[in-house]
Design brief:
16 helices, Xylulokinase, EC 2.7.1.17, Nucleotidyltransferase, domain 5, alpha+beta, single chain, FGGY_N, 7-stranded mixed sheet
Length: about 500
């Protein structure tokens, strides 16, 4: 490590915005920037983004951080990005239309068909129960419904790997991103030919899989001109957002549970074992940045999205009408259980404990005696109950939870953190640095440039912030509300499945 280059850059391509942080060798965040980009929904179940929007936002956010710390301070760069988005590139290395991102569920019927025909292989090789979210399902949908588009593709890139290519000219992915696609053999850390065939593609369409914690390429002169970075700065592939947030939350030791409240809610547990797949629908193993570990993942499809949706609704699209902190403050006088109001957070379908793309969100128990305060409380409780579903699943699979950490945007709401503590009946600690995925990407870059092992860089960076102690007097009300929630959630999932039949 030189005396000048004393920070690494973490870039996280999220669902709604890119976040960039510079993290020093001392673990301190030196600078940060963010830029949003739009999301298109051209048809029911279709959710798309333009890769060029990712790149423009990334270049602008990186340039802002570089201006703050200096290009010479950046010793390396790590990447993170939303899982299960796919970009098709033509023979001239131009995107063949918009990317299908993880929220896109157009492939639900295709996924069900593939799961019925290839279930044993999916469970044995990819360690997954296939859903519409997976890249495998999306590619199979394109093979059936847009074969000319797929046929024109020279390569398929995952979200962060498109940015890796724009920064370095290197075509590569990492095991964590690849493990979520349904196409990788999780033991060999390589693409599975039979599953590629099921998707209707050749394995050569997919990028080579490189280690998360190694250098994949270096900043090109074109990327340097766009971002202000120094040409030749090394770049590590990093990991998909789940692996990055696990590192950023310090989920590197067994028993540490990370809960993030970004657009989606991720519930992650570090483990060294891989349980039998198929016992628990809604369970996904993701390869850790440390290949000796596995991340157990439970997913709340609409985590922070649920509360931001309610804010948009109550403010009638004009935040000036009702500031976000003022909205969450409405719930301060509402007791646990939201006076009988329940909310299931299935705005974009359900994931854990039952994957069902057609499931939808809803309130129950509302009467004319209720209003916005009870709705705000119910939404926060509904997401917390879905987190409880994930924890219960891990425990059924033999996992042990000894510490709970929360991070990302929704964790800024103290009341939400207290609700999660009450629902889980465990103390909850908020991570001091909430942007877990971008920080995790920067820490993976520190390992890649030789500043220490993963546990060492995590130990000097990830710090606990506010602790939230559960209130025992709330436990019984939370348990009763959870039982109501489970009945409502089961009814909604059953209705979605019967409606599909």
């Amino acid at each position: 490590m030189s005396a000048i280059s004393d920070a690494t850059l973490g870039i996280d391509i999220g669902t709604s915005a890119v976040k960039v942080v510079a993290v020093g060798a001392d673990g301190r965040v030196r600078a940060r920037a963010s830029r949003p980009y739009p999301m298109a929904t051209p048809a029911p179940g279709h959710v798309e983004q333009a890769p060029e929007d990712w790149w423009r936002a990334t270049a602008a956010a990186v340039a802002e951080v570089v201006a703050a710390v200096g290009a010479g301070a950046i010793a390396g760069i790590g990447l993170s990005g939303q899982l299960n988005g796919v970009v098709l590139m033509d023979t001239e290395d131009r995107p063949l239309g918009p990317a299908l991102i993880w929220l896109d569920t157009r492939a639900a019927a295709v996924a069900a068909d593939l799961a019925a025909r290839h279930g044993p292989l999916l469970r044995e090789a990819a360690a997954t129960e296939l859903t519409a979210i997976a890249v495998l399902s999306k590619l199979a949908w394109l093979a059936r419904h847009a074969p000319e588009r797929l046929g024109a593709a020279k390569r398929a890139l995952l979200v962060k790997d498109y940015i890796l290519w724009r920064l370095t000219g290197t075509v590569a992915t990492d095991p964590s991103d690849a493990s979520a696609t349904g196409l990788m053999d999780v033991r060999r850390l390589d693409w599975t030919g039979a599953l590629c065939e099921a998707a209707g593609i050749a394995p050569a369409l997919l990028p080579p899989i490189r280690p998360s914690l190694a250098i994949a390429g270096a900043i090109t002169s074109d990327a340097a001109a766009a971002t202000g970075l120094a040409a030749g700065t090394p770049v590590a592939p990093g990991g998909g957002d789940v692996a990055a947030l696990a590192v950023g939350c310090g989920v590197v030791e067994e028993g540490v549970l990370g809960v993030t409240l970004g657009t989606a809610g991720h519930v992650v547990l570090s483990a060294r074992s891989l349980p039998e797949i198929g016992r628990e629908p809604g369970f996904w193993p993701i390869t850790h940045a440390d290949p000796a570990r596995t991340i157990w993942l439970g997913l709340v499809m609409s985590g922070g999205l649920s509360l931001s949706w309610l804010h948009r609704t109550l403010s009638t699209g004009d935040p000036a009408r009702l500031a976000f902190p003022a909205m969450t403050a409405l719930a301060e006088g509402v007791p646990p259980g939201a006076r009988g109001v329940s909310f299931v957070p299935f705005l974009e379908g359900s994931a854990t404990p039952a994957p069902e793309a057609a499931a939808r969100a809803g309130f129950s128990g509302l009467s004319s005696a209720h209003g916005a305060p009870e709705m705000v409380q119910a939404v926060m409780e509904g997401v917390a109950f879905n987190v409880k579903d994930c924890v219960a699943m891990f425990e059924r699979l033999g996992g042990t939870v000894r510490e709970v950490r929360v991070a990302e945007g929704g964790a800024r709401v103290d009341r939400w953190c207290r609700i999660i503590a009450d629902v889980l009946e465990r103390p909850v600690v908020r991570i001091e640095e909430l942007d877990a995925s971008s920080v995790g990407a920067a820490l993976m870059a520190q390992v890649a440039v030789g500043w220490g092992g993963l546990e060492a860089v995590v130990a000097r960076t990830v710090a606990n912030g506010t602790a939230f102690t559960p209130t025992e007097a709330h436990f019984e009300a939370c348990r009763a509300a959870y039982r109501r929630y489970r009945r409502r959630a089961a009814t909604e999932i059953a209705f979605a499945r019967s409606d599909a039949d």
